[in-house]
């Protein structure tokens, strides 16, 4: 990033609220009544133009600035028939619904949130369209209501206007005056933890201590949407449980404190824990804590040292309910500061020039895998809200099995792909949809022969070995001075920078390029150990059950192909190959920039046999005709899915 300092876990560029830009518009689901836009072939005279309208039984409404283009009106309830007639007319190039446009979010900075919706806008550099997580597409299914993400990080600014009402805590300490009665009402060892816990000061306060990091992460997860200010979170209706383990800038946290924080959140039963932190070394203790809470998904950052992420904890943990996230930029490239690993990193997510909430009620940009992780945590919250009964294993499988695979990430992450929240939702829904099973005929059941089962040997809980202390992402200084302050790693200095404009024009000059500093040497924490609350006992991993019959391999969608275009008279052919019998689901979504984007998603489920199969893809989906435009069909079986594009004419 040129002259922008980067520490081991991120950097911030701050700016004050007040420099507003226009909101990015997305087509809404409602169309303008019965209006249709028609593009004619050139050269038609007045009589020929009238004949086109008469053949489709539509009335002229007005001429548009684009040559040979006009608006016509169909009879009430006959828009689909009129569209079919117009598109079948050789004198018509295309006809499409006249769609009303509404913003995907009315938050002024949404236009700069390329990670949610990348239309090629310039945020320091011109972006690559669709190099994003499909945030607005996912919001058509859920915005995260009912899900909770614990943010294990610095303190947070609980009074930030874009996070008002988004905080939560221990339900056993909420209501009836329990918040301030000075009693551990639910006997979990923490007094009045109604809004999380501060493991630095061993109390229930959440002061930021001048450190913006936790507030920035929280905003990426769950900042309010459509409230007319600031930004929108990935899961704007989810709640955030703040768990503080870092104090003022330049402080660190030990593995034991991180483990206590992980255990605290897991014991409260939160759906997702976001931990944008890490350090060189390993920690069996932290792994044991995560193993003790198998139904909580722990999302961590890969690190910012342009290094092998397998060297950093907790990214290198073997816990099955862990997801490690690397960072990509808005041009679909690995962020040049990001750690990577074909075995330790699971997927990529947006982490370069991410705008979010910061302290003092402001907003700022930051760079780091710390910014990438909360995109995944927010997406996991969407999944948990959509399917509350889903396990952490199912959430992880859906997130990893639905990535947008890109050549730039090949060999750099286990999946070789970048997060796609909308596809992850479709994959999860397909995996948890119950498959009807035939009632078996009564058969004689043989009495099983008792077999000896070996008593599992108790596993010793490893005493935490002093390892590298973890450092948070950007540690800000609250000064507006534009001169970077030289601070020892792993802190980040804040450099005030103007907000990039929302237009796809040239990037601000100079265009900073992320420049990482050397990786952390992992010195012991320089500050005295803070007092800690009584540590709940850490359960050792549950012994594996005795082996039973082998589990059948999950079905995989091996191939998917769509032949031909869909018209009112001719369907396209969908051909696919499955590795096993499965309950498959296909979801259709629009990828065009015109009126088809207003079409609601169509979703169809069916049973399918292993091997090759096919079906006809007609224009009528979900009870109504698809508008002319470009679409994507995603076919899912379990956590496996493939997508193919097709056109409706």
UniProtKB/TrEMBL annotation:
Residues 432-472 have a biased composition (Low complexity). Residues 159-181, 432-555 are annotated as: Disordered. SUPFAM superfamilies: Subtilisin-like (SSF52743). Pfam families: Peptidase_S8 (PF00082). Gene3D superfamilies: Peptidase S8/S53 domain. Keywords: Hydrolase, Protease, Serine protease. GO terms for biological process: proteolysis. This is S8 family serine peptidase. It comes from Solirubrobacter ginsenosidimutans.
